[in-house]
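Researcher: I'd like a structural prediction for the single chain below. Treat it as a standalone chain; there are no partners to consider.
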Amino acid sequence: MILNCIIVGLGGFLGATSRYLIGEIPFKPQNGFPIWTLIINISGAFLIGLITALAEKHDGGNEKLIMFLKIELCGGFTTFSTFSLDTVKLFQCGKTGLGIIYIILSVALCMGAILGAQITIRKAL
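Model: Treating it as a single chain, here is the predicted structure.
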C-alpha cells in the first residue's frame, strides 16, 4: 500500500511537472487558442495508447510499472480539466466557433493519437 502511494505520487509529480513546463513555453496564439493544452492532451493520449498496446502485447507486463506510466504519469500529464476550463473560457469570451473547433480537434486528435499508437505497436511487435 505504501509503495503504491509512492508510485502514484512520483508519477503524478512527473506528469504534472512536465505539463507545467510545456505550458510555460513562451508561445501564445493571439486569438487565445489553448495550443499547449491541445498538444499536451494529444501527446498524453498517444502515450497512454502506446503504454496500453505494449501492456497488451506483453500480457499485462509489470503491473506496478503500467500503473505508474498509465495512471499516474499520463494522468498527471494530461489535462482534461484544463481542456474543459479553456473551452468554457472561449465560450464565455464569445469565441464560440473557436471553442467548437477546439472541442472537435481535442477529441478527434486525441482519439487518433491513441489509435495511431496502438497501430504502431501492433505493427512493430
